[in-house]
């Protein structure tokens, strides 16, 4: 039967008594202060030489604060896993999962697609949960390498999988919009674990299922 293996950093945080719908901060992170964030955005605009009393900009600080709070607050989800009763032992891959995150160096978005796969061991999980796991880690100040690694490590730990592969291809606005202006160029990162890393046939199959060249 289904078991609920909750995301430990969300569900077992000491905020479980919060009313439903209220967002939970991650441990080590303070609850966002919307007022302060909006005031800081207004400060930033003034420092950039803009007049925040102008009618077009009056609501901007609040909107920006809300947008950042949303992008940095993971949605709760329960990682429901199931015993692998059928003994399924082939790769499970979901490819082209769209995502976005925020670069911790520039507070600008990076976005693209992820391909996530695992070789089941004792437990399997609902396919949509692969995307939700990625989203959980993406709603943070991130670098692409760490986002890739955290997603893979977490799935490996939760599923006791025989192997995990995560490939992320993303365009970084901080690269596209500034300096080199390399619009459209994508950065690819990957974390391969277990048999997806060590077994050549499994690794090649993973890349093929992701639509990538081995
Ligand atoms: Zn950046």
TrEMBL record:
<feature type="region of interest" description="Disordered">
    <location>
        <begin position="1"/>
        <end position="34"/>
    </location>
</feature>
<dbReference type="Pfam" id="PF01227">
    <property type="entry name" value="GTP_cyclohydroI"/>
</dbReference>
<keyword id="KW-0342">GTP-binding</keyword>
<dbReference type="InterPro" id="IPR018234">
    <property type="entry name" value="GTP_CycHdrlase_I_CS"/>
</dbReference>
<feature type="binding site">
    <location>
        <position position="106"/>
    </location>
    <ligand>
        <name>Zn(2+)</name>
    </ligand>
</feature>
<keyword id="KW-0378">Hydrolase</keyword>
<feature type="binding site">
    <location>
        <position position="174"/>
    </location>
    <ligand>
        <name>Zn(2+)</name>
    </ligand>
</feature>
<keyword id="KW-0479">Metal-binding</keyword>
<comment type="subunit">
    <text>Homopolymer.</text>
</comment>
<keyword id="KW-0547">Nucleotide-binding</keyword>
<dbReference type="GO" id="GO:0005525">
    <property type="term" value="F:GTP binding"/>
</dbReference>
<dbReference type="GO" id="GO:0005737">
    <property type="term" value="C:cytoplasm"/>
</dbReference>
<dbReference type="GO" id="GO:0046654">
    <property type="term" value="P:tetrahydrofolate biosynthetic process"/>
</dbReference>
<dbReference type="InterPro" id="IPR043133">
    <property type="entry name" value="GTP-CH-I_C/QueF"/>
</dbReference>
<dbReference type="GO" id="GO:0003934">
    <property type="term" value="F:GTP cyclohydrolase I activity"/>
</dbReference>
<keyword id="KW-0554">One-carbon metabolism</keyword>
<protein>
    <recommendedName>
        <fullName>GTP cyclohydrolase 1</fullName>
        <ecNumber>3.5.4.16</ecNumber>
    </recommendedName>
</protein>
<comment type="similarity">
    <text>Belongs to the GTP cyclohydrolase I family.</text>
</comment>
<feature type="domain" description="GTP cyclohydrolase I">
    <location>
        <begin position="38"/>
        <end position="210"/>
    </location>
</feature>
<dbReference type="InterPro" id="IPR043134">
    <property type="entry name" value="GTP-CH-I_N"/>
</dbReference>
<dbReference type="GO" id="GO:0006730">
    <property type="term" value="P:one-carbon metabolic process"/>
</dbReference>
<dbReference type="GO" id="GO:0008270">
    <property type="term" value="F:zinc ion binding"/>
</dbReference>
<keyword id="KW-0862">Zinc</keyword>
<dbReference type="InterPro" id="IPR001474">
    <property type="entry name" value="GTP_CycHdrlase_I"/>
</dbReference>
<feature type="binding site">
    <location>
        <position position="103"/>
    </location>
    <ligand>
        <name>Zn(2+)</name>
    </ligand>
</feature>
<comment type="pathway">
    <text>Cofactor biosynthesis; 7,8-dihydroneopterin triphosphate biosynthesis; 7,8-dihydroneopterin triphosphate from GTP: step 1/1.</text>
</comment>
<dbReference type="InterPro" id="IPR020602">
    <property type="entry name" value="GTP_CycHdrlase_I_dom"/>
</dbReference>
<dbReference type="GO" id="GO:0006729">
    <property type="term" value="P:tetrahydrobiopterin biosynthetic process"/>
</dbReference>
């Amino acid at each position: 039967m289904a078991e609920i293996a909750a995301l430990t950093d969300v569900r077992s945080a000491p905020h479980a008594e919060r009313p439903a719908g209220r967002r939970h901060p991650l441990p080590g992170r303070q609850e966002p202060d919307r007022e302060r964030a909006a005031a800081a955005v207004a400060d930033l605009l003034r420092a950039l030489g803009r007049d925040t009393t102008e009618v077009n900009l009056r609501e901007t600080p609040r909107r920006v604060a809300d947008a950042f709070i949303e992008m940095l607050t993971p949605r709760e989800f329960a990682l429901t896993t199931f015993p692998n009763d059928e003994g399924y032992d082939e790769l499970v891959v979901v490819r082209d999962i769209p995502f976005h995150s925020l670069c911790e160096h520039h507070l600008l978005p990076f976005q693209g697609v992820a391909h996530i796969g695992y070789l089941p061991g004792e437990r399997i999980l609902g396919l949509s949960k692969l995307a939700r796991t990625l989203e959980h880690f993406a709603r943070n100040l991130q670098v692409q390498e760490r986002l890739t690694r955290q997603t893979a490590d977490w799935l490996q730990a939760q599923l006791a999988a025989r192997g995990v592969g995560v490939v992320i291809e993303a365009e970084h606005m901080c690269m596209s919009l500034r300096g080199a202006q390399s619009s459209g160029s994508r950065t690819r990162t990957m974390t391969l674990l277990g048999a997806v890393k060590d077994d050549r046939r499994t690794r090649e199959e993973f890349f093929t299922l992701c639509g990538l060249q081995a």
